[in-house]
Structure formats: structure tokens, C-alpha cells
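ok new one. same drill as before - C-alpha cells go in, u give me an amino acid for every spot. 87 of them this time. try not to just spam alanines like last time pls lmao
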């Protein structure tokens, strides 16, 4: 595990902060309720991908047209917490 992923997974994320990050950065492609538009539906994504895979998808943009994002570990932990709440 790379240092960023390790640091992120050690932090406790905040769902409310993660929701705000999602609304700022993700709704254009994934929709206001993560239902999918240009990007896929993210509801239940945490049941399909583990946290390490989600982190890599976000910071590396592995699936076009997903862009890569520079994000701090605490913000990434917040976003992960929010994504877990979508199940």
C-alpha cells in the first residue's frame, strides 16, 4: 500500500465533509444523488470495490473519462465515509 492510501485508511472520515466534497467535485458526472450520469452510479460502489480501489480510481482517474484528483488524505477519508453512506 502506498503512503497516501495508508494514511487515508488510518483516518476517520466525516460524512458531512465528504458530502460537501462530493457536491463540489463529483455531481457533474455522477449526479446529485450519485445515481450516475456521464460517470457510473456510485450507490453501493463500496460493496463492489474496496477502499484502496476507490482511492486509486479517484487519485489516478483509472477509468476514462474519470479525471485524476489531487486530494489530501483527510479529505479522501471524508469522501470515502460519504461513499460508504450511499449503500
Amino acid at each position: 500500500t502506498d503512503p497516501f492510501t495508508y494514511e487515508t485508511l488510518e483516518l476517520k472520515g466525516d460524512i458531512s465533509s465528504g458530502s460537501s466534497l462530493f457536491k463540489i467535485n463529483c455531481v457533474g458526472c455522477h449526479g446529485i444523488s450519485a445515481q450516475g450520469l456521464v460517470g457510473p452510479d456510485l450507490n453501493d460502489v463500496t460493496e463492489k470495490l474496496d477502499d484502496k480501489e476507490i482511492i486509486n480510481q479517484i487519485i489516478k482517474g483509472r477509468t476514462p473519462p474519470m479525471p485524476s484528483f489531487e486530494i489530501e488524505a483527510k479529505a479522501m477519508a471524508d469522501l470515502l465515509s460519504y461513499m460508504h453512506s450511499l449503500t
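The mean pLDDT is 96. and btw The two ends are 25 Å apart (CA to CA).
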